[in-house]
Specification:
It is a single chain. The protein is mostly helical and 216 residues long. 80% of the residues lie in helices and 0% in strands. The chain is built from eleven helices and no strands. The longest helix is centred in the last third of the chain and has 29 residues. The N and C termini lie far apart (43 Å).
Length: 216
């Protein structure tokens, strides 16, 4: 019963957490629109392999990671800079996108599985995300972390991420087809604005968390 509870809780948290539009979903959308369903599946498998390592490690070392302020700061600063890098990458490829080649074309020529591993490895923001969630779930007794059943929780999270991302990507693809393939415009202009907004939001959270004079 505890194993089933771990699977269900892990699936729900991960499925909902994978729905918001992030760069992993955007890259998956581009891979799917330029390839086939098997390419998307291969990409998602690469993503969840790295996520499995992150989730398991943050589950085991959650308290230590939370208390390591320097490490947390590094992750948050890297995330802000990486979002700006992605915004610039998409924007400066606008001309290529108009010509029929998006800024991600040079990447999706490689194995989708390898791309999933690489970009998921760069998704450092998932470390504080899973650290916070794992602490909350453990302290609230929503999951059990005995060695014999903790892997069921990890399995549930991976299945949730896989199907959550796939559902969103297929949904975006369906919308794109109905809107006469506007993905080129979205990827070149809307997505950079989205990433800039995300970086500014994370920068604001970082400032408020560490430097705001109004904090008590």
């Amino acid at each position: 019963m505890k194993a089933l509870k771990n699977v269900v809780v892990g699936f729900l948290v991960s499925f909902i957490g994978s729905i918001p539009l992030g760069y992993l979903n955007i890259i998956g959308f581009e891979i799917y629109t330029k390839g086939y369903l098997q390419d998307l599946i291969s990409y998602l498998l690469g993503v969840v392999i790295i996520e499995a390592v992150v989730i398991y490690c943050t589950l085991v070392f959650a308290n230590r990671l939370t208390n390591n302020i320097k490490f947390t700061k590094f992750i948050e600063i890297f995330s802000i800079l990486f979002m700006l890098f992605l915004a610039a990458s998409f924007y400066f490829q606008a001309d290529n996108t108009v010509a029929g080649e998006s800024g991600l074309t040079k990447y999706i020529k490689y194995s989708p599985f390898v791309i999933g591993i690489i970009f998921s490895s760069l998704n450092f923001i998932q470390i504080p995300f899973w650290t916070a969630w794992n602490l909350y779930l453990v302290n609230g007794h929503y999951i059990s972390v005995q060695k014999s059943i903790r892997l069921w929780y990890v399995l549930g999270t991976l299945v949730g991420t896989f199907f959550g991302m796939m559902a969103l990507i297929l949904f975006l693809s369906a919308i794109d087809k109905k809107l006469n393939n506007v993905s080129g415009f979205v990827i070149s202009y809307v997505i950079p604005i989205f990433f800039i907004g995300m970086s500014l939001y994370q920068a604001y959270k970082f400032y408020w968390k560490y430097y705001s004079k109004t904090k008590k």
